[in-house]
Specification:
binds nicotinamide-adenine-dinucleotide, alpha/beta, four-stranded mixed beta sheet, seven-stranded parallel beta sheet, about 400 residues, binds magnesium ion
Length: about 400
């Protein structure tokens, strides 16, 4: 018999949050939702509360909380409403919660994800930015508090599934030669380079294979997503950057591979649907139905692989540089990227401005040591400030 798992979902109204609830909906006897945490999409959160009847719901601020409270009361839904960043941390640490889905986008997700680690929870990590920013601090918290960290990012979930069951972070001992991290190449894989200067946010968000939130869609288009994932893989699996090879694979069917010293290569394949890694991590080490259609190899017919083009995608090289520099550099990279992507959405910088801003911020801010969450948050704040000033300067010079 399986015990009921009690869950907090951080980012329940986003793309990953909605897919998570879709898997949970199929297994009401296995999962109970204790807390649903969102930001400002309260219509969707209200519907989720009516369906899943969580004990708590969290929104951005007091006005939205008041609004949601009135609607829940009118619908006789007993969920109590909280708001703000401290409430997210509380929800991630609740005694009655076993598992935390960390699916907030960006740096905002770090503190609650870290709180889940400190409370020794089972963490389903979609929020890669948290690990990129705070790698050493996050992994130490996981180890010291015996938390369980399961990757939701499809590539890392594939690697997790392809590594030995008892993988301990020692590559040599497990006979692993290296990781092959697949990338779709995004919507601009073969767009002429000169044209990249003029692409719009709508074009950047039109991903060929995956339906995702807007920020990660732009990250996929610049390939910063793969850069962040390379750093994520480094921390999750204790693998140096030179043993992680990015492989462009436009069909997104092979979700990543592990190469062994004897020549064996083990991969996980599937349709590009995040409900597969979500269901894997929710049920681990068991298996449950995710609602994903079976893979039809006859329909797919052929799979192809290419080398990444570092010239076309400078963000990839910037991520390798950040990991090489170490310390606060990945946090700087991530913060500068978040600011630059937001500026791209707001029409304050072009698509090609994104890597230019990040490179300029990294040139300006040398790497410093990271020993605590405060160090990480300070590096993040500093990089945001410098990035904002760079964007103002770029506009002036264009
Ligand atoms: P999304 O934009 O669809 O959803 C983001 C969620 O975060 C929303 O629920 C929103 O309410 C919440 N949120 C945003 N800012 C917040 C704040 N300041 N405080 C509290 N909550 C806040 O994003 P997504 O595509 O679901 O991605 C979520 C995370 O998962 C990202 O880190 C992304 O890189 C990662 N991820 C997503 C996919 C995917 O297929 N969508 C795949 C792999 C990894
Ligand atoms: Mg991914």
């Amino acid at each position: 018999m399986t015990m009921v798992q009690n869950l907090t979902i951080l980012g329940s109204t986003g793309s990953i949050g909605v897919s998570t609830l879709d898997v949970i909906r199929r297994h009401p006897q296995r999962y109970r939702v204790v807390a649903l945490c969102a930001h400002s999409q309260i219509d969707r959160l209200f519907e989720q509360c009516l369906e899943f009847r969580p004990r708590y719901a969290v929104v951005k601020d007091t006005e939205l909380a008041a609004d949601l409270k009135i609607r829940l009361q009118a619908a006789e839904c007993p969920t109590s409403v909280e708001y703000g960043p401290e409430a997210l941390v509380r929800m991630a640490s609740l005694q009655e919660v076993d598992t935390v889905m960390a699916a907030i986008v960006g740096a905002a997700g770090l503190s609650p994800a870290l709180a889940a680690a400190v409370s020794g929870k089972k963490i389903l990590l979609a929020n890669k930015e948290a690990l990129v920013m705070a790698g050493p601090v996050f992994m130490r918290a996981v180890r010291q508090n015996r938390a369980t960290l399961l990757p939701i990012d499809s590539e890392h979930n594939a690697i997790f599934q392809s590594l030995p069951f008892d993988y301990s972070g020692d590559l040599a001992r497990s006979g692993v030669q290296g990781l092959l991290l697949t990338a779709s190449g995004g919507p601009f894989r073969s767009t002429p380079r000169e044209a990249l200067e003029y692409v719009t946010p709508e074009q950047a968000c039109a991903h060929p294979n995956w339906v995702m939130g807007r920020k990660i869609s732009v990250d996929s288009a610049t390939m910063m997503n793969k850069g962040l994932e390379m750093i994520e893989a480094h921390w999750l699996f204790n693998v140096p950057a030179e043993k992680i090879q990015v492989v462009v694979h436009p069909q997104s069917v092979v979700h990543s591979l592990v190469q062994y010293v004897d020549g064996s290569v083990i991969a996980e394949l599937g349709n590009p649907d995040m409900r597969t890694p979500i269901a894997h991590a929710l049920a681990y080490p068991e298996r449950i139905d995710s609602g994903v259609a079976p893979l039809d190899l006859f329909e797919i017919a052929s799979l192809s692989f290419e080398r990444p083009d570092f010239g076309r995608f400078p963000c990839l090289a910037l991520a390798y540089r950040a990991l090489r520099e170490g310390g606060s550099s990945p946090a700087t990279l991530n913060a500068a990227n978040e600011v630059a992507v937001q500026a791209f959405f707001d029409g304050r910088t072009g698509f090609s401005g994104i890597p230019r801003v990040i490179a300029a911020v990294m040139d300006r801010l040398p790497s410093t040591r990271l020993d605590s969450l405060d160090d990480v948050l300070a590096a993040d704040a500093e990089a945001r400030k410098v990035a904002e000033s760079m964007i103002v300067e770029t506009i002036r010079h264009e």
